[in-house]
Amino acid sequence: MKTNLSFANPAEVETECLAVVVLDHGSKDKTEVRVEAGDGADRDAATEVIASGEVTGKIFETTLLHRPAKLKAKRLLLLGGGKAKNFTASELRKLAGVAVRYLKPKGIRSLVFLAPQNIESDEAVKAIVEGAFVGNFDPDTYKSDRKDQRIDSVTVVTQGDQVKLQKAMDEGRVIGESQNFTRDLVNEPSNRMTPTILAERARKMAQEVGLKAEVYGADKLKELKMGAFWGVAQGSDEPPALIVLRYEPADAPATPVLGLVGKGVTFDTGGISIKPADGMEKMKYDMAGAAAMIGAMRAIALLKPKTRVTAIICATENMPSGKAQKPGDIQIAMSGKSIEIINTDAEGRLVLADGLCYARQLGCTHLIDAATLTGAVVVALGYVNAGVFANDEKMYERFNRATDEAGEKFWRLPLDDEYKDNIRSNIADIVNSGGRWGGAVNAAMFLKEFAEDTPWLHLDIAGTAWMEENKPWIAKGPSGIAVRSLVQFAREFNN
Ligand code: BES
Ligand code: MN
Ligand code: ZN
User: 481: number of CA atoms within 13 Å, CB side?
Assistant: First the structure.
């Protein structure tokens, strides 16, 4: 998708469609709808339809006018943004997605978006571009009647310093495209996204954007004594992949080093503790944590913050077979801790245990892992918020700020010492499953054992990595959650 900046008078812009935001400036029960940034003809063109009461300004409301009076645009799209006082870049990002998703099935291929004036112009441009890319993605790769309905070009009309605004536009493109890169990886079914293929995709991307990439197989897992990771991988005929991506800018200090550890289970059958058939097809997205890290690394490589970042991806299938690990087995993790396997379906924490340990060995001073780790986080937070856990207040505060900036929702869950009782074992150091109650916390407590004293965040994205419904701003399917927050966090990390 092409993106352009324009400083033209909105009334003079020739386009298939001019999109504007309408907000409700009224008080509690009185609505007072106004076109944002419209101080001229675009406002006049909407006067009548607003006066009719048809346009309420409600969030995500769409109204399309043809041949709008006094505008050169063929159509005027009014996008409801809700109450003016609650309107932020986060709503604006979504509205750009709404515009794209509303227009593209109508055969419209280009649009002009008028940036609302109540948001800083560079922030607005970035949000609009990000949202437009996210909205333009559809998971229809394998449909033979794929219509390839995409918006080809978005122009943002704004005011201000051209250099600064162009930079904001480029940033929005990098972030939106990287989120979609992640979504593409997650969308692939497991027969087309094996650990080997995931490693190849990561390697190719790394080459394109100038990251160092290393890919290791089973031999390296054994050499590093990654007994927890290998315990999961041993049951599959597909070889595992340990992928290391490094961003090491010359102008960055030696420390800190941010480590991003991703769960890359390309298919989770549950192993010998096999899952029910119903819904098992969804377990192709059990590599969404890995994909988020790979997408974030792409954006980081292109946006070039002055800080070192290393990604460690633990990719494997979780399969039942004659070679598979069994409940009751004991595995020795890379850190030396012994783990009693209670449930082979609690495999994500096993691969991450060794991933976190390896990240520390590689010199990472701060750790973030992302994983579709537990069904329990979906019970706790549904499809709206992802779970975040932290052993370090400062790191949590920084991440929390990054999520706000990025417009992604995370909710903190606890890590009290009392939960440790749930992962005690009679015969080993810990068990890999702490039972049903507080399942998301138990899993995080397990990982905490391997982060040790390194500042660490754990993101459980099981409920948010796959959209169960179409939304006005984003298609049903892989969401790309965490990419934008991780990128924002990395960019602010060294300040
Ligand atoms: N990959 C699943 C978690 C999951 C569930 C992801 C739903 C996406 C949607 C994970 O490996 C798993 O199976 N977790 C078990 C852990 C249990 C056995 C302790 C779970 O949550 O049931
Ligand atoms: Mn599982
Ligand atoms: Zn899993």
Answer: 29
Q: Where are the domains of the chain?
A: 2-136, 177-491
Which pTM value belongs to this model? Answer: 0.98
Distance 346 CA to ligand 3 centre (A): 7
Q: What's residue 38's pLDDT?
A: 66
**Does the CB atom of residue 439 touch ligand 1 within 6 A?**
yes
Instruction: List pLDDT tens digits, range 327-348.
Output: 999 999 999 999 999 999 999 9
Q: Are strands 466-467 and 241-247 parallel, antiparallel or unpaired?
A: unpaired
Residue 311, beta-bridge partner list: 245, 260
How many Cβ atoms sit within 10 Å of the Cβ of residue 330? 15
Using most ligand atoms within 8 A of CB, pick from 345, 466, 467 the residue to mutate for ligand 1.
Answer: 345
Q: Which residue owns the Cα nearest ligand 1 atom 3?
A: 374
Residue pLDDT, tens place only, 113-128: 999 999 999 999 999 9
422 Cβ closer than 6 Å to some ligand 1 atom: no
Query: Given this chain, do its domains 2-136 and 177-491 carry the same CATH topology?
Result: no
What is the CATH T-level fold of the domain 177-491, as seen in this structure? Aminopeptidase (3.40.630)
Beta bridge partners of residue 339, listed in sequence order: 331, 430
In this prediction, the residues of the chain whose per-residue pLDDT falls under 70 are: 38-39
Angle among Cα 364, 285, 355 to the nearest 5 degrees reads 20
447 neighbors 369 (Cβ within 8 angstroms): yes
**Ligand 1 close to Cβ of residue 376 (< 6 A):** yes
Note the CATH number of domain 2-136. 3.40.220.10
Query: How many whole angstroms from 347 Cα to the centroid of ligand 3?
Result: 6
Strands, E assignment, 227-351: 241-247, 257-268, 308-318, 330-332, 338-340
Rounded Cα gap, residues 211 and 178, in angstroms: 14
